[in-house]
Amino acid sequence: MSVELLTKDSVVDYLISKKIISLQDNPEVEVLTGGVSNVVLAITTSNQKMVLKQALAELAVSEKWVADQRRAIVEADAIELFNEISPKQVPKLLFLDPDRFVLVLERVALGSTVWKSDLLAGVINPDIGAKLGHTLASWHNYGQQNPSAKDKFMEDSLFDQLRIDPFYRFVADKNPSLQVWIRKLINELEGDKTSIVHGDFSPKNIMISMSDEVFILDFEVTHVGNPVFDISFLIAHLLCKFFHAPDALQANLLAKTATAFKKEYEVLRQISPSFAHHAALIALARVEGKSPVNYLTPNQQHKLQKHTKSLLARDAKLSLLDLFEMSTR
After folding, report:
1. pLDDT of amino acid 34
2. Predicted pLDDT of residue 58
3. What is the SS3 assignment for 14-27?
4. What is the CATH number of the domain that holds 244?
5. Of 216, 247, 22, which Cα lies nearest the Cα of 136?
6. Which of 16-20, 59-63, 182-186, 208-212 has the lowest average pLDDT?
7. Do 176 and 297 reside in the same domain of the chain?
């Protein structure tokens, strides 16, 4: 059963009814864009800066993509957990409405920018990759070392709806020659319940402050699964931007960012040798999947498709250098 979606015009009355704010707070509302899975509204009062998210039942992409709105409840649980582990990097949860799939959290420091936008604009600092590698590895270690923390994230149907089906199976259906390899990758994800996995560790969900502090958002795909997915998901996004880079300097900085991310992660824990195959497939899905990136030109899409399909066809271990091979651009 669908629920009524909040809008810029209705959200103030809603928040007042839930005693989150009062009319005397002089609330101002701003519509935030960039995602495809939620209504996102920023609310500013005289003493609070908040972001409200409400999960959509059908994602705003060209292909039909239905997803369970209960992911808002999963996200609220995950925010509470990861805020406890990394309070300076994960905003605090302020409110959850499980009936309307609404959550409200603190807004990150004003002036912060979306890392995806920075990377596309050529603002590329490999040190950010290193910080993210350290944080992600510490999260994966925590999930592995604290079995009781996994209890709220054991149900993995959301991961199937939001990641395996649109990224893995959808691409496999378009590429019969790759289906055997893709099935192996799916089996690896489905058969491993090692740790708590973010599930959407992407530049669009990472914000950078003016002093290079890192904030991590969007935990609605959090589940107990294989940590290789988080690693490969971020690397795949950097690979897409590598093919978009206008010159060799920016491409090289993106490759260095991926290297710094992987190297710092490996200080704390090992990475599955299959990470590059997963990254190649996820990058291919950003062209051929249900949610393609919107910044690659047709020529760049073709080069990325050719490169990733060539890598996926190899029956051998792949490295980060294989992914970020300058001659393939």
Report:
1. 53
2. 64
3. HHHHCCCCCHHHCC
4. 3.90.1200.10
5. 216
6. 59-63
7. yes
Number of domains in the chain: 2
Report if residue 31 sits inside a domain: yes
Contact 51, 33 (CB under 8 A): no
Residue at 294 is within a domain: yes
Q: Domain of 212?
A: 113-328
The predicted-structure confidence for 13-51, as pLDDT tens digits, reads as follows 999 999 999 888 889 999 987 566 788 899 999 889 999
Q: Which pLDDT does position 262 carry in this prediction?
A: 98
User: What's the whole-number mean pLDDT along residues 211-218?
Assistant: 95
Enter the tokens of residue 268. 């704390």
Write down which residue in 106, 124, 155 finishes a domain: 106
Q: Which pair of structure tokens corresponds to residue 261?
A: 């991310």
The answer to whether the Cα torsion of 217, 221, 227, 230 is positive or negative is: negative
Q: Which amino acid is at 209?
A: S
Q: What is the reported pTM?
A: 0.91
For residue 43, how many C-alpha atoms fall within 13 Å in the half-sphere facing its CB?
A: 32
Asked whether residue 4 is assigned to any structural domain, the reply reads no
Domain shared by 35 and 86, yes or no: yes
| pLDDT, mean of residues 293-306 | 96
CA 144: distance to chain centroid? Answer: 20
Last residue of a domain, one of 39, 73, 106: 106
